[in-house]
Amino acid sequence: MSESEIAALQNQLNPHFVSNVLTSIQSYIVNRSPIEASDYLNSFNRLLRLILESSRNNYLPLRQELQLLNKYLELENLRFHNTLDYQFIIQDDLDLNLEIPSMIIQPFVENAIIHGLNGLKHQPKLLIILNLKIGL
Which of 33, 44, 89, 136 has the largest CB neighbor count within 10 A? Predict the structure, then answer.
């Protein structure tokens, strides 16, 4: 692998996120049901597969980036015991084939969850609004 490919993969596989997911899966195994743990593990596997496949490219179609982000949010929602309410609001005419840097949106969403929503006493809600404005 080239240095840039390794750096891209390291940026996509945030060690803190991976550790949180594995800790949550462990919790499901120890404290809950093996079926829930299996579902969680399968979701994590799908996300890892998407990340590894996307890491081959510096840019991805927005559609694929949103699939990765949705899988990430599904895992975070499991970690929040299905109390995380999230919604994508996408500009109607936004071209989902538009190529953007791989995993560029996820760190912002992760920070919003960790620093904005984590620990709230009411049901957290996350809105992800995507629109394209050209010009000033």
Answer: 44
